[in-house]
Amino acid sequence: MNTTTQPLIELNNVVKRYPMGTTFFTALEEIDLTVEKGEFTGIVGPSGSGKTTLLNIIGSLDSPTEGSARVLGNFIEKLSHKAAASLRNHHLGFIFQTYNLLPVYTVYENVEFPLLLLGLSADERKKMVMDALEWVGLTDKIKSRPAQLSGGESQRVAIARAVVKKPELVLADEPTANLDAENSHHILKAMVRLNQELGTTYLFSTHDEKVIQYLRRKITLLDGKIATDEVMTPQGG
After folding, report:
1. In a domain, 180, yes or no
2. CATH assignment of the domain containing 182
């Protein structure tokens, strides 16, 4: 997949409508957006503005009703379910506000899980898992289960799981919504470090001011449309 001459993400006139009885609801309207490799960007706006819908389309979890969404050289609207799953498994990482950890698995097993789909040897997986847990400062918790972790620790496991395969793009949907200020800053600093050290591109959906402090670009959505697109000077860590 050659993405060296094109943006990591390129959306052209993206519209997303959902049927509502005999009519429809327009969640996104005429979205034009380009994101380059290595950006640390946030999509911000109030609840219902279309942030999660936009993130889901970029993450190949949904498709536009109209327009084109090209991510890592793939047109999302043209992908089969199998091809979309392959894109997610190999090239994308996801972080959700609810962590989505598997409760019966240890921290190690939760972080290892995405690697099981990639056909790697046990030794390769072990090194990648331990590297990811070292990045987020949780190597001492490898045998713990999610119920034994704090909210901040659970989200750091979720980050490790998202970055363990060193994806080109990490999509983070309200990743600090359930965290206090101290834990929020801790995980945001970890993500900034991974962005800088690995060149991982981050795209957030958020209305949390703590996240916004760290952004280098802020895209504001209002009623499904891009209202502003600003270059930011990060204030965080």
Report:
1. yes
2. 3.40.50.300
